[in-house]
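Good day; I would like, with your permission, to put a structural problem before you. What I wish to show you is a protein chain and, alongside it, a tokenised description of its three-dimensional fold. Please examine both parts with care and let me know of anything in them that strikes you as inconsistent. Thank you for your consideration; the sequence and its tokens are set out here:

***
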Amino acid sequence: MQYLNAFWVGGLICVIAQILIDKTKLTPGRILVLFVVTGAVLGGLGIYEPFVKFAGAGATVPIVGFGNLLAQGVIKGVQEQGVLGIITGGATAAAGGISASIFFGFLIALLFNPKVKP
């Protein structure tokens, strides 16, 4: 059942993004920022955590989950380090995912022939 919940919740988040792309004049970059900020606000208010427990990867993998991760990292950083945690908490929480993205992007660039779009 957890896989089914992850599938439909993740799909619903993607459907919302697609509707915003198709029906509004928002650019994909603005929609991305909207989703990250939404995840951060909902995570900071503690509203997103029950959603994560229900949907699992369906709530953490989309970009809204990244915003939640940043908010949770800042909250933890402030609890452990005080005011300095505001700056370091989000980066510390997301460091593994960011490092993996850089590494795998580099690996793919080595394996394939990247081209610059004209």
Q: What stands out?
A: The mean pLDDT is 92. The chain has one domain: 2-111. The radius of gyration is 16 Å. The chain is about 85% helix and 0% strand.
